[in-house]
Amino acid sequence: MPKLSNTEVPEVKLDAAAASIEAALTAEQRRGLFEKPGTVVFAIVELTSKSYTGHASGEEKEPNVKVRVTSCEVARNDEDAAALAEAKRAMWRARRMDGTFDEVGEGPMRPEGALDDVTAGKPTEADYKAHQRRREERNRTEYVR
């Protein structure tokens, strides 16, 4: 794995694969983004590093890493969008207060607490698995008929 000196900060580039973003958007959101320039959609994204350059000693290239959006969930109503916007503002305030505004990587604050209000009314993993089991059972029952 590449190691950078403490003074090196790699540039982060987003690769062209955005299928997970497209899949997370509703048809209405897609149309809104197209028809109304300036439309804002709030999302939670997962970034995965895919490639890097500029890591060999004596190499002239500046270090950079290419990341891909590998998972994405988009707010589908005003309540969720407002909660994500507030979580974003809270994380921004924490970075400013901690003096880590320009730093890359994990800081001392964790975002999970900022999203408690958003996730409180949403299904848990157990709820989702139970839903999947009910749907599969219903499909099996209908198939047998």
| Outline type | extended
- Please tally the helical runs, counting DSSP H or I stretches of 4 or more residues: 5
Task: Estimate percent helicity.
Answer: 40-55%
Number of DSSP strand runs: 3
Portion in beta strands: 15-25%
Q: What is the averaged pLDDT score?
A: 80
Spatial order of strands in the largest sheet = 1-3-2
Low-confidence stretches: 104-109
Give the N-to-C terminal Cα separation. 56 Å
* Derived structural class: alpha+beta
Rg, Å, rounded:
20 Å
Largest sheet: 3 strands, mixed
Pattern of helices and strands: EHHEEHHH
Explain this structure to me?
The protein has 145 residues and is α+β, with helices and mostly antiparallel strands. The chain is built from five helices and three strands; from the N terminus they run E-H-H-E-E-H-H-H. It has a three-stranded mixed sheet. Residues 104-109 have low confidence and may be disordered.
Tags for this model:
3 strands; 145 residues; alpha+beta; three-stranded mixed sheet; extended
Short description:
The protein has 145 residues and is of the alpha+beta class. It has helices at residues 19-24, 27-35, 78-98, 116-120, 125-144, and strands at residues 11-14, 43-53, 64-74.
Q: What does the secondary structure layout of this molecule look like, with pairings?
A:
Blueprint: E1 11-14, H1 19-24, H2 27-35, E2 43-53, E3 64-74, H3 78-98, H4 116-120, H5 125-144
Parallel strand pairs: 1-3
Antiparallel strand pairs: 2-3
